[in-house]
Amino acid sequence: MNGLRMTIAALAVLAGPVAAQAPEARVVIPGQGQGTVTFFERQGFGGAAITFRTTENVVRIPFQVRSVKAEGVWRICPDTNLRGRCLYANSSYPDSQRDLGLRNAVRSVAPQSAGGGSGGSWIGPVGGQTLRGTAAQFWPAPEIGRQRVEACPNGNGSANCATATAERFCAYAGWRVMKNYMQLTINGRNVLADVLCANR
């Protein structure tokens, strides 16, 4: 009888801390791969969470994303099959709307080996003054991550290189084709200007 009491007491001691330390966030890992991106329900990485390790063309997150942690560079898209105005993340964003520009639902994700830019990675939201219509969008001074976009990051300054960069900028911003661009020299740097993107 004394042995039974001791066993019950031991089980109670073991069970207590397990219940008390149950994690608040629930993490789902659907695949295996290099690096991770984790979406959180609350700002500051709180609440429920879901983690991805590989390309997911159809994502269903059962909460509004409020913060993000990324290891490596990840493409985050508002439409399935990596379509729409995608963003690129490579760090921790305690307020994903303010810090990353993530305002839409997440519908697909993919790890990126070299980011979205020519000659290096483009990280952060597209910015700068803009005028958007139903089928096109115009940036007189386009930015990515609050930095002006280099017209030719590899330094050769050729028209072909700048054209390719402008085309990549439009794709990064979620548009299908680049209609117009200019190169502008500011403090010795060639940057994109007057970029017009459209769907056809």
Please estimate the helix content.
Answer: 10-25%
Biggest sheet: strand arrangement: 2-1-3-6
Strand content: 25-35%
Give the number of helices: 3
Head-to-tail CA distance between termini: 83 Å
Order of helices and strands: HEEEEEEHEEEEEEHEE
Radius of gyration: 23 Å
The count of DSSP E runs of length 2 or more, i.e. the number of strands, is 14
Low-confidence stretches: 6-33, 114-120
Derived from helix and strand composition plus strand pairing, the structural class reads alpha+beta
Structure description:
It is a single chain. With 200 residues, the protein is an alpha+beta fold. It is 19% helix and 32% strand. It has 3 helices and 14 strands. The strands form 4 sheets. A 4-stranded antiparallel sheet has the order 2-1-3-6. Strands 9-10-14-13 form a 4-stranded antiparallel sheet, with helices on one face. The protein has a 3-stranded antiparallel sheet with strand order 5-4-7, with no helix packed on it. Strand 1 (37-42) and strand 2 (46-52) form a beta hairpin. It is elongated, with a radius of gyration of 23 Å.
Strand-helix topology:
Blueprint: H1 2-20, E1 37-42, E2 46-52, E3 67-70, E4 73-77, E5 87-89, E6 92-93, H2 96-100, E7 108-112, E8 126-127, E9 131-132, E10 136-139, E11 143-144, E12 147-148, H3 159-172, E13 177-186, E14 189-198
Antiparallel strand pairs: 1-2, 1-3, 3-6, 4-5, 4-7, 8-11, 9-10, 10-14, 11-12, 13-14
